[in-house]
Amino acid sequence: MKDDVSLVEQTQRDILEYISKNNSNAQLPKEQEFVGLLGVSRVVVREALSRLRALGIIETKRKKGTVVVVPEIFGGLKAIVMSGLLDRDTLRDLYQLRLMLEIGMADFVFRNKNEEIIRKLEEIVACEVELERQLIRTEDDDEAREIAEKLRDVDIQFHSTLFETTGNKSLMDFQYLLRHLFSLYAPRVKKDFHSHTIVTHVGLFNLLRNGTADAFRMAMRLHLKTQFENMEALVDKAVTK
Fold first, then answer.
1. Which residues share a beta bridge with 59?
2. Topology of 75-239 in CATH?
3. Which of 49, 56, 208, 230 could anchor a disulfide with 75, C-beta 3.0 to 4.6 Å?
4. What is the mean pLDDT of residues 111-136?
């Protein structure tokens, strides 16, 4: 079985090499042609092609046969992450990577920001401020939970907009993936939820509009302070899902 697996993996690499040496947009040879080209059985070729198809590198189109496509980098990773099979150390690594990226993307956010982005973020923080006022005023627990859910959505909108501003699709896909994996934006039901937040979204927005990338980066580090402090608990929650 080990030899069979190794043969499939080698065949997969051989097919990728064939793709790189030939027109990547062209139709691939049929299975039987690969059998002759690579000197392996049709079963091995079929399995190798199946793996490449699962990775999103090739796909079969009607009347066109098997063709090469541009794969989504996180397409295969999404299935792995959502499988629930990752161990605690791997989950911690992924979560730490998320924090590194969000702190480190300041220069790209500043390079790509424009008036449209500023207006969008201004609307988001204004909505958040109003919801916070409502949460403080309400004495009804059900209403408080409803407002907290809305605040979570606004929180997601704010951070997602920053990721979108980088203009990096892979970064946006990764953020979306980890956001759902770790439930990073849990509903806030305590009325003193800002008591542990050193820099709020309003502060980040003001720095983005009038400050520097370096100041924004430092502020983001402080904004995520509770994420650092609660990292182990968030990882534990992901493990027990």
1. 67
2. Four Helix Bundle (Hemerythrin (Met), subunit A) (1.20.120)
3. 56
4. 96
For domain 7-68, give the CATH number.
Answer: 1.10.10.10
53, 57, 60, 64 alpha-carbon torsion, rounded to 10°: -160
Judge contact between 29 and 19, C-beta under 8 A: no
The separation between CA 34 and the C-alpha centre of its own chain, rounded to angstroms, equals: 36
% of the chain surpassing 90 pLDDT: 48
- Domain spans of the chain, in order of start: 7-68, 75-239
